[in-house]
Amino acid sequence: MTAQKPHHVAVIGCGLAGGAVAVALAKRGWQISLFERGAAVASGASALPIGMLSRHHTANPTPLSRLTAIGLPITVSHLQTYLPSGEGWQKTTIENHRASAPDQRPQIEGVDTAYMIEPARLIEAWLTHAQAIATTAIHPHTPIEALRFDTDERVWQLIGADGTVVCRCTHVVVANAHEAPALLKMDALGLRPVGGQVTLGPASEADHASPALPAKRLSGVYVPQFSTRAGTFWSAGATYRRGNASQAIRMTDRDANRCLLESIAPEALPRWARQAEAGELWDWVGVRCASVDRLPLVGGLPFGVSSPVDPSTLRAAIPVADGLFGLLALGSRGLSLAPLLGETLACEMAGEPSPLPQDLRLAIEPRRALLQTARQALKARQ
Question: Whole-prediction pTM value?
Answer without folding.
Answer: 0.94
